[in-house]
């Protein structure tokens, strides 16, 4: 039956039942499409092909049986997000993870196990315990205090599926678990493809914090996850080495240069300096007034000297590998990567300079 996948594809496309009816030139009614989604009816081959084209998926996708479930879905957002937008994102996540798991099965490359600290979830009784969580993560992964250049690649190597999707401006990212048929859970972090690199990196570790911490009742978990992200990306010993333990002033120029040491925004560095009491509240307020004057505190939050965006690449590499080994056809690779065959061919012929 195709009900679940059909609805997933429709919601992911942001289309109503009547909009789909119009896109397939009224071959069947919106009511009939609703019955397909509820598995009360099955479309004939002509209708199935028309639905697949209208929703930009393959007939094989609609007929597939690899049922996955999303669990623990949490959005990092500034304000309430419309239910329709949340449903679209959920559909996109499920569709992408399904394709990710499919290519791993095709080339017999088992999903990397989620390498979480043995003590997780790590308890946080007060805000400053977030420093302990960040330290535990670095110790568990043998990171020392060095900054991490390619954060997406690092997290994927530890079993987390990282997706970059065009999300609403109000949503920075989300975390969830995808439950497979064998009962195993796959951790997933989604970042906003429209965000700057520094915001994406902070979101990645913020969401990672949610995965590994357990906040005490009454404690704001969002603030804890923020503190974990700051401590993980900017270990105190390195920050002290770079700027000292006490400062009466920080300049914008100095913060801009520090951005490329830690791969975070000037605002995140300023918050971290305040958390570590490197600067007092007066200096903090002066800097944020200056950030506001420069327009850095309002959408699209574009600071000077932007950090390159994070690009999840493992899924694409697996598809290219399968194609090169002739485990899949060009058409199948294009379907998995959600692109045209022409674009796929150009990518396969691309040099690193291009």
Task: Briefly say what this structure is.
This protein has 354 residues and is an alpha/beta fold.
Question: Any overview of this molecule?
Answer:
By secondary structure, this protein is an alpha/beta fold. It has 3 domains: 1-65, 434 Repressor (Amino-terminal Domain) (Orthogonal Bundle), CATH 1.10.260.40; 68-312, no CATH class; 314-348, no CATH class. 51% of the residues lie in helices and 10% in strands. It is built from 17 helices and 6 strands. A 4-stranded mixed sheet has the order 1-4-5-3, with helices on both faces. A two-stranded parallel sheet has the order 2-6.
Count of strand segments: 6
N-to-C series of helices and strands: HHHHHEHEHHEEEHEHHHHHHHH
Unreliable segments of 5+ consecutive residues:
none
Structural class: alpha/beta
Strand order of the largest sheet: 1-4-5-3
Q: How far apart are the first and last residues' alpha carbons, in Å?
A: 44 Å
SSE arrangement:
Elements lengths: L2 H11 L3 H7 L6 H8 L7 H11 L3 H5 L5 E9 L5 H24 L15 E3 L5 H11 L10 H6 L4 E5 L5 E9 L5 E8 L4 H16 E3 L5 H13 L2 H8 L8 H11 L3 H10 L5 H13 L20 H11 L5 H8 L3 H8 L6
Parallel strand pairs: 2-6, 3-5
Antiparallel strand pairs: 1-4, 4-5
Give descriptors for this structure.
354 residues, alpha/beta, 434 Repressor (Amino-terminal Domain), 3 domains, two-stranded parallel ribbon, 17 helices, 51% helix
């Amino acid at each position: 039956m195709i009900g679940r996948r059909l609805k997933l594809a429709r919601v992911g496309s942001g289309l109503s039942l009547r909009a789909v009816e119009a896109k397939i030139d009224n071959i069947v009614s919106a009511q009939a499409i609703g019955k397909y989604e509820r598995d009360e009816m099955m479309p004939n081959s002509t209708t199935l092909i028309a639905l697949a084209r209208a929703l930009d998926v393959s007939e094989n996708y609609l007929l597939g049986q690899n049922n996955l479930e999303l669990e623990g879905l949490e959005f990092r957002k500034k304000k309430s997000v419309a239910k329709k937008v949340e449903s679209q994102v959920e559909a996109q996540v499920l569709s992408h993870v399904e394709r990710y798991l499919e290519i791993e099965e095709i080339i017999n490359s088992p999903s990397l196990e989620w390498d979480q600290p043995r003590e997780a979830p790590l308890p946080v009784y007060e805000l400053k315990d977030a420093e302990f969580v960040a330290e535990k993560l670095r110790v568990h992964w043998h990171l020392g205090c060095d900054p991490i250049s390619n954060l997406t690649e690092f997290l994927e190597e530890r079993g987390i599926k990282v997706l970059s999707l065009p999300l609403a401006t109000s949503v920075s990212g989300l975390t969830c678990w995808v439950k497979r048929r064998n009962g195993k859970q796959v951790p997933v972090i989604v970042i906003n493809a429209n965000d700057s690199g520094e915001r994406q990196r902070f979101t990645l570790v913020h969401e990672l914090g949610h995965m590994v911490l357990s906040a005490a009742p009454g404690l704001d978990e969002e603030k804890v996850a923020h503190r974990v992200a700051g401590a993980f990306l900017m270990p105190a010993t390195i920050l002290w080495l770079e700027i000292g333990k006490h400062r009466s002033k920080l300049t914008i120029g100095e913060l801009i240069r520090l951005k490329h040491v830690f791969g975070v925004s000037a605002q995140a560095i300023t918050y971290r300096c305040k958390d570590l009491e490197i600067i007092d509240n007066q200096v903090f307020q002066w800097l944020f007034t200056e950030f506001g004057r420069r327009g850095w505190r309002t959408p699209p939050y574009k600071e000077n000297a932007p950090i390159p965006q994070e690009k999840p690449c493992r899924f694409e590499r697996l598809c290219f590998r399968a194609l090169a080994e002739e485990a899949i056809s060009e058409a199948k690779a294009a379907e998995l990567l959600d692109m045209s065959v022409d674009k796929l061919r150009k990518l396969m012929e691309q040099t690193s300079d291009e």
